[in-house]
C-alpha cells in the first residue's frame, strides 16, 4: 500500500473554475513532485520541491500553481484550465533528491477532466 | 534533451512465457535507471533501480540490465503470470542539474491465462 495519498481521485471542472489537488506523503521524505500523464504521452514532470523549496519548474503554464507548505504536503492549484489539461496528475515523493539511489514513490493520481 | 523509448508499445503472451521489454535512452550520462509498473487507474510502483555503475538488478522473477554506453536497458520477466499484466515504464534520472525522472511511453503487457 502506497505511503502517498492524493485527493480527490477524480475531478471534473469547467474552464472558469478554481480547484486544488492535494498530495500527502507519510514516508518522511524530503522531496515531492507533480507529474502529468496524458493519453498516449509519457509522464511529464511538472514541478519538484526539495525541503519545501521549488527546485524545478518544467515550463509549466501559470494556470498551474504549486504550493508546498511543509515536507509532507503538496498542492496543485488550478485556474482557468483548458480541455487539453485533462489528464492523470500524479504526485510522488522521495527521500533524498541528491542520492544516486533515490527512489520515487507515487500516489494513485487524480483523474482530471476539464469541460 | 534526454529521450526515452520503449519497444514494443504493447505485448500479449500466454502464461508461462519468458519475455523481454526494451528501453533505450539518448543521453548516456545518467544517474540511474528505474523500471516501474502501472496498473490501470493506479499510480506507479517501483520495481527495480539500477545505478549508473551497475550492470543489472534482480528481484524475484524480474531482472533488469543496463548498458549505459549503448543507452539500453532490458527488463526480463521469467515465467510470466496473469498478475503481471500491467504497463511497464522505464525512466532515467539524468546526470545534470535536472535530477528528476524522464519516462518512456511504456509497454502494455497482457499475460493470457
Give an account of the 3D structure:
- The complex is a heterodimer of chains A (115) and B (113).
- Chain A is an all-beta fold.
- In chain A, 0% of the residues lie in helices and 56% in strands.
- Chain A starts with a strand and ends with a strand.
- By secondary structure, chain B is mainly β.
- Chain B is built from no helices and 11 strands.
- In chain B, strands 2, 4, 5, 9, 10 and 11 form a 6-stranded mixed beta sheet that branches. A 5-stranded antiparallel beta sheet of chain B has the order 1-3-8-7-6, with no helix packed on it.
- Chain B is globular.
- Chains A and B meet through strand 10 of A and strand 4, strand 5, strand 9 and strand 10 of B.
Report the structural category of chain A: mainly beta
Largest interface: A-B, 26 and 26 residues
Largest sheet of chain B: 6 strands, mixed
The total count of strands of chain A amounts to: 11
What is the subunit arrangement here?
Answer: heterodimer
Q: What is the residue-averaged pLDDT of chain A?
A: 90
In summary, what is this structure?
Chain A is 0% helix and 56% strand.
Topology:
The complex is a heterodimer of chains A (115) and B (113).
Chain A: E1 4-7, E2 10-13, E3 18-25, E4 31-37, E5 44-50, E6 53-57, E7 64-70, E8 73-79, E9 87-94, E10 105-106, E11 110-114
Parallel strand pairs in A: 2-11
Antiparallel strand pairs in A: 1-3, 3-8, 4-5, 4-9, 5-6, 7-8, 9-10, 9-11
Chain B: E1 4-7, E2 10-14, E3 19-25, E4 30-38, E5 44-51, E6 56-59, E7 62-67, E8 72-77, E9 86-94, E10 101-103, E11 107-112
Parallel strand pairs in B: 2-11
Antiparallel strand pairs in B: 1-3, 3-8, 4-5, 4-9, 6-7, 7-8, 9-10, 9-11
Amino acid at each position: 500500500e502506497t505511503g502517498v495519498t492524493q485527493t480527490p481521485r477524480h475531478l471534473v471542472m469547467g474552464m472558469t473554475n478554481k480547484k486544488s489537488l492535494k498530495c500527502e506523503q507519510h514516508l518522511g521524505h524530503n522531496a515531492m513532485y507533480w507529474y502529468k500523464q496524458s493519453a498516449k504521452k509519457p509522464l511529464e514532470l511538472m514541478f519538484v520541491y526539495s525541503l519545501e523549496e521549488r527546485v524545478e519548474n518544467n515550463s509549466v503554464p501559470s494556470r498551474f500553481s504549486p504550493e508546498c507548505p511543509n515536507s509532507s504536503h503538496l498542492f496543485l492549484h488550478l485556474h482557468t484550465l483548458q480541455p487539453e489539461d485533462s489528464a492523470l496528475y500524479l504526485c510522488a515523493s522521495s527521500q533524498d533528491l541528491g542520492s544516486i539511489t533515490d527512489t520515487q514513490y507515487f500516489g494513485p493520481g487524480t483523474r482530471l477532466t476539464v469541460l | 534533451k534526454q529521450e526515452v523509448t520503449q519497444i514494443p508499445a504493447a505485448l500479449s503472451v500466454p502464461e508461462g512465457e519468458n519475455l523481454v521489454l526494451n528501453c533505450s535512452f539518448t543521453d548516456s550520462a545518467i544517474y540511474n535507471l528505474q523500471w516501474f509498473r502501472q496498473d490501470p487507474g493506479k499510480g506507479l510502483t517501483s520495481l527495480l533501480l539500477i545505478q549508473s555503475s551497475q550492470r543489472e538488478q534482480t528481484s524475484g522473477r524480474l531482472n533488469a540490465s543496463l548498458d549505459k554506453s549503448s543507452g539500453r536497458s532490458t527488463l526480463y520477466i521469467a515465467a510470466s503470470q496473469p498478475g503481471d499484466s500491467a504497463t511497464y515504464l522505464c525512466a532515467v534520472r539524468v546526470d545534470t542539474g535536472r535530477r528528476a525522472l524522464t519516462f518512456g511511453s511504456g509497454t502494455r503487457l497482457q499475460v493470457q491465462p
